[in-house]
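input
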Amino acid sequence: MSAPVWTDARVVRGLAHLRRLRDADHAAGAARLGWKTGMGGPVAEAMGTTGALVGHITGATLLPDGATIDVSEWVNPLLEPEIAIRMGTDLPAGASREQALASIDALASAIEVADVDLPFEDPEAIFEHRLFHRGVILGRFDSARAGGDARGITLSVHGPQGEYADHVDPLIPIGDLGDVAAHVANVVAQIGETLAAGDVVITGSGIPAIPMTEAGRYEVAHHGLGTTSLTVV
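output
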């Protein structure tokens, strides 16, 4: 069995950056929003890590649905269509998948925007760069999806160059939402945090990240859940 990602010495050093950035953001008055996952799957394999990294997100990077974003000075702007989960109760480290699912009180469609300005090589540097996070758009949370019920949700993405996805299963690259929540709870416990009631977790991109190289409107439809969009200039 693989060692947990948070035991990797590079990730341990990265988590120190996560703690420092979280404390600085909160000291500056940024409201707590929750957490994000990233660098899982094939990226983790390439870095030699055993699971997704976890970063914090605050109200400072929360964008309105339909936001207009100027990416002209970004290095490599990317859009990631994601499912967001909202926690109804605290979830401690070591929780089971079943406990994690029971703690989820709603799901929403989400978009994360990122600027990938480093190679996928050093987990410590990626933590220091906030896992490339630049912003997040959240759709309406659907409490009928309590318990992490993602049955029947499919993903379509339309942008200036046409269709980037058409009714694909967004959970294939993400995995079970209960497992994602339990993983986040385990990782944030390493910096003395709790995955807490009210926290939002954006769970990873449902398709490969989309380069935002063309100006125009990008629409993310999680059929059966909701739609979010942004415009790039």
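quick obs: The longest strand covers residues 104-115.
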